[in-house]
From TrEMBL:
It comes from Paenibacillus baimaensis. The gene is yajC. Belongs to the YajC family. This is Preprotein translocase subunit YajC. It comes from the Bacteria. InterPro entries: Preprotein_translocase_YajC. The chain crosses the membrane at residues 20-38. It is found in: Cell membrane. Keywords: Cell membrane, Membrane, Protein transport, Translocation, Transmembrane, Transmembrane helix, Transport. It is a single-pass membrane protein.
Length: 109
């Protein structure tokens, strides 16, 4: 019996252990959620913002709706895309989903 009393005295304040048992899993869940959900989403937002900020005339792009085109005009919040030789469409800058690696080459010389 004296061994159990000595173990309780060595353990320290039982209130501290109670807090760790109560709030430890909550803190652990928040840390896991941060690294699995929040941090990757922030990285994707940063990458997308950089992509939208680096758009320039002549870039081949794909819109969120799947429309492929070449940027003819660009302003702070709108973009004019050339879909074919005749068709020009205006989109919000945020409607751009992806940029092709190579700029479009004019076939008319």
């Amino acid at each position: 019996m004296s061994f159990l009393v000595a173990a309780d005295a060595a353990a320290g304040d039982p209130g501290l252990q109670g807090y760790l048992v109560t709030y430890g899993p909550l803190v652990l869940m928040f840390v896991v959620l941060y690294f699995l959900l929040i941090r990757p989403q922030q990285k994707r937002q940063k990458t997308r913002g950089m992509m939208l900020g680096n758009l320039k005339k002549g870039d081949k792009v794909v819109t969120i709706g799947g429309l492929h085109g070449t940027i003819l005009e660009i302003s702070d919040d709108t973009i004019v895309l050339r879909v074919n030789d005749v068709t020009k469409l205006t989109f919000e800058r945020s409607a751009i989903n992806a940029v092709s690696n190579q700029p479009a080459v004019d076939e008319k010389k």
